[in-house]
Amino acid sequence: MNSKPTISIVVPVYNEELVLPELYQRISVVMAQTGEPWELLLVNDGSRDRSAEVIGQLHSQDGRVKGISFSRNFGFQIAATAGLDHAQGDAVILTDADLQDPPEVYPQMIAKWREGYDVVYGIRKSRVGETWFKLVTSKLFYRLIYRITSIDIPLDTGDFRLMDRRVIDAIRQMPERNRFLRGLVPWVGYKQTGIEYERQARFAGESKFGGVRQMLPFALDAITSFSYIPLQLATYLGFTIAGVSGLAILMVVLVRLLGPQTPLLGQATTLVAVLFLGGVQLISLGIIGEYLGRIYDEVKGRPLYLIDKRWGIEDEEVKG
Ligand code: UDP
Ligand code: MG
Question: Cβ contacts of residue 294 below 8 Å, gap of 6+?
Answer without folding.
Answer: 177, 178, 221, 224
